[in-house]
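Following the same procedure, the fold was encoded as tokens, giving this record:
***
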Amino acid sequence: MSVLLLEDDVSIAIVITAALEDEGFSVVHCQTIAERDRLLTDRGFEALVTDVMLPDGDGIETIDRVRALHPKMPIVILSAQNTLDTAVRATDTGAFEYFPKPFDIDELARTLRQAVGTAHRNVSRGDEPLGDGLPLVGRSQAMQSVFRMITRVLRNDLTVLILGESGTGKELVAEAVHQLGHRRTGPFIAVNTAAIPAELIESELFGHEKGAFTGAIARHVGKFEQAAGGTLFLDEIGDMPMQAQTRLLRALQSGTVRRVGGREEIRLDARIIAATNKDLEPEIAAGRFREDLYYRLNVVPIHMPPLRERRDDIEVLARHFLMHAVNEGLPPHQLTVGAAELLSRQPWRGNVRELKNFVYRMALLAREDIIDVESLEPLLARESTGMPPTGNGEGGDISSAVSRWLAIERPPRGTIYESALAAFERPLFAEVLRETGGNQLRAAQALGINRNTLRKRLSELALDPEEFVRRT
């Protein structure tokens, strides 16, 4: 099996060539796009393995010239530019596979063998460009696996189940699948199934007819119908009531929905993406989640890694959030290398959401344009204890915050309130959860808010009630 390898890094090329030849491949190596085109014109190859950033151009942007010479030849793309945008660009060319560097050489060999074996299939993925990627940031191997899974579902309507802890970015993955996929011109309808009261969830999802129940004064179009032509994202699917699970399963099996109180069967035309922070198999064993619904949803699973498993991404995420904080009206800041390393060593139990919230607070409270270790440590100390800095008396912390912000010549509007809220809301909720042993119903009653509101705020503040149950 003959393979043309386009790689300008000679050391990498030597390793790939030796490994592939050990597997029975015949490898010809070149270092430029011009040399690639000459070799493809002079002779035929069964596959092309190409890097992206080359001395005389972009390996992805010139794939059309390869297609003109050998339209059915499978192409495998290698890249050190490990972003979602690169993965999508590679997929959009019709490449057989995309490997971010560094990669498993044995997997490359297996992929090439599969590619050559299916070389006569049509690998065209469409003519429309997918455009720029979404703010899914990460260069770690764990995130490269996520990027590759996303690119594999862009041209089909397979149901996707996104699994991962709270705050890992599951909704961003759902948005990426929608906005980069072939349904991107349709609506993206997101539903937090945990935030809808059990008695209303069927009406919200499937709609209802006028008079279907007390208070149904007009026809209501459900989320399934609203998502027609686009994507329906069912978040926190593990918390869906059992009765609603049964109706959802029936809808997915039949491809139709019926409004509450209605008789008309409405054909579904939406891609389904579900997400949960729960391990569904124990939920199934406990009788809280339907096994048949799990298998119906778990067609293409995408696992979002917790931040502790992608520490290489923390620095790039922090710098990314600092840049975007400026768009939210916060002062611009830069991190020193030492400060970035310090951030990378933190636990971030609330994952990317907790890191983002902290970076925004850091941008709000930091006095200097350059944030170094010395200025970062007090903010991290407060974060680790979950409590605001100790004041000199009742109201001392609020007083110091007010004084600090009024000392600024032109403080951004609302920052005093936001600063105080950021400093006291999380520790307040944590203390109430601690006192109630993690009981959300009692905590909501103590705070005087709705339980669904409590759950939403706990998620946003990266507070896990289970941690407080374990402490009691």
About this structure: Residues 120-133, 385-415 have pLDDT under 50 and may be disordered. Residues 415-435 form the longest helix (21 residues).
